[in-house]
Amino acid sequence: MRAVSRDYEAARLMGINVDTIVSITFFLGSILAVLGGFLLGLSEIMLIAGIVAAILGALIAAPILRLRDDYLAIATLGFSEIIRVVFTNTMSLTNGALGLKGLTRYTNVYYSWGLAILVIVFMFSLRKSSYGKALMAIREDEVAAESMSVLKAEGITMRFGGLTAVSELTLEVPEHGIVGLIGPNGAGKTTVFNMITGVYAPTAGDIKFDNRSILNIKPHRITERGIARTFQNIRLFKELSVLDNVVIANHLRLESNIFSAVLRLPGYVRKEKAIYEKSLKLLDEVGLLAYQSDKAGSLPYGKQRKLEIARALATDPALLLLDEPAAGMNPQESMELMHFVRLVREKFNVSILMIEHHMQVIMGVCEKIYVLDYGVNIAEGTPLEVQSNPKVIEAYLGVEDD
Amino acid sequence: MIKINDLNVYYGGIHALRGISLEVPKGKIVSLIGANGAGKSTTLRAIMTLEKPKNGTIFYKDRDITLEKTQNIVQSGLVLVPEGRRVFSNLTVEENLILGAYTRKNAQVIQKDMEWVYGLFPRLLERKKQKAGTMSGGEQQMLAVGRALMSKPEVLLMDEPSLGLAPLIVKDIFDIIKKINALGVTILLIEQNAKVALEISDYGYVMEVGRIVLEGKGRDLLEDENVKKAYLGA
């Protein structure tokens, strides 16, 4: 899986020491939460101060916990209770109940409110400080990263002489999304795929992959960057085994020179073995392991499609373009394909853009759909929105024939 | 100011930079031109250590920064205006600019600098309280440059400042780049629009598929037959 999101780069580029800020925030949140728990345990009168401290501590630390994926931290927040228990029960540490009794001098309503206000003022002053600014920048950077799309086509147009195949299409595939592209035959859908994979250079507009423009980059380099594609007609090596089909797809990424390959030098042999294992693992994950030695051409149609998609996955893409994956499938196979597409998205962490005519599959699996007619985007939206759109019904859905 | 020596960077599985060497002298404007995918962006990102090189060195002011942390590099005066602008959409113009001055302490000087930036970009002053995400591409580019200027950089790296902008706005941006340089800021900029970049550059490097294939004075490159054919024609 290729990571698409950037690691708080915008914040770092402003000179913010992201790691330090994150650590400080975690500590700050924890200390506040511990203080809160301690106060709550100390006396019910300290309730106000205790609750304020505990809530603010959780508020400030929780998003950071999410950032760090650090679940141990949640356990640490529970220390507040442990500390209270230790304090009230360990004679040597606190002079026992007497020691704590000393503190009860301060447990009245005024001190409680006073402490609460102190904590709130402290937090507000933090916001204005450089620490607060840094935290704001880091949060903004995270929000921006979350809403970044894997693929963004901005106003792309494709003209072949006098013919306009695609006209000013803007299309976006969010990270881990499944997006559909539908429309009558000749609407320009495959042309869009060809523009994305660099086969055609758009006459106008820009295409950004991982926020970087991929215009005018050769197709094989686009694959290297993380876009993989399947085709309408299955292009498997029908005479080779299922396993070999996947191995070959992996081989294209094998970096070595002809000498080490021909002489079978140890480094090369090791890499080759790794590829075999990787391919077997891939077949296992897509449920084709049992067929590894079978001739690819002998597989039922539905499984051949799966294999083709598996081959595309062998290149470790971030974006998978599926060109009519359900073509020629019976209802049973289409259902399986729907599940398979979802499984692929989960297991391999890819984003998917698919062309399909099979309405059941598109409506069942896509989160957003773009409708193309004569190269123009006539509608876009969720499956429900698109299905009930009169323009779409008129141009395309009309009478369902299957 | 910047000296890159035989740098090799791998981006995913791709050999993105193949032993490149270049130099950016103090006070000059240097351009890195070439087609999309040539490795220009990767070069800037490597300088800011957003990408780790396999081998080779990067020197800034005679200091080896090849493995330094990005934030430390920024703090020593080397600032990048990234591709696609990357302003903070939910924050206002003003808040973005204030964040730009994060590495600096003196509030009064920061305020003065903010007024200076508004002077360079009157459009930003008009939209002071507007959320950055609601502005046009050109305005966001101005904000990105303004924000970088707020950190008082000694060297400014600019990644495709003209990308996606109307020709008139491109002219404005490049006039401002010249102005900034006149104030003493060293500039390294990468551009697909070779003409407009070379016109203001003291020196230029041409990149192709991860390698530097040609270099020379900006003026000379503009006249070079190969450059004209490949980058200045269409």
Summary of the model, kept short:
Helices cover 55% and strands 15% of the residues of chain A. Chain A contains 19 helices and 10 strands. Chain A has helices at residues 9-12, 18-42, 47-68, 71-77, 79-89, 91-94, 96-103, 109-128, 130-146, 189-196, 219-225, 242-251, 258-262, 266-286, 301-313, 331-348, 359-365, 383-387, 390-397, and strands at residues 149-160, 163-174, 178-182, 204-209, 212-213, 227-229, 319-323, 351-355, 368-373, 376-381.
Describe the protein's architecture and organization.
- The complex is a heterodimer of chains A (402) and B (234).
- Chain A is an alpha/beta fold.
- Chain A has helices at residues 9-12, 18-42, 47-68, 71-77, 79-89, 91-94, 96-103, 109-128, 130-146, 189-196, 219-225, 242-251, 258-262, 266-286, 301-313, 331-348, 359-365, 383-387, 390-397; strands at residues 149-160, 163-174, 178-182, 204-209, 212-213, 227-229, 319-323, 351-355, 368-373, 376-381.
- In chain A, helix 3 packs parallel to helix 8 (109-128).
- Chain A starts with 8 loop residues before the first helix and ends in a 5-residue tail after the last helix.
- The model of chain A is unreliable at 1-5 (pLDDT under 50).
- With 234 residues, chain B is α/β, with parallel strands linked by helices.
- Chain B has a domain at 1-77 and 188-234: P-loop containing nucleotide triphosphate hydrolases (Rossmann fold, 3-Layer(aba) Sandwich), CATH 3.40.50.
- Chain B is 39% helix and 27% strand.
- Chain B has ten helices and ten strands.
- Chain B has helices spanning 40-47, 70-75, 93-100, 107-120, 122-126, 137-149, 167-182, 194-200, 218-223, 225-232; strands at 2-11, 14-24, 29-34, 55-60, 63-64, 78-81, 155-159, 186-191, 203-208, 211-217.
- The interface between A and B is large, with 37 and 34 residues.
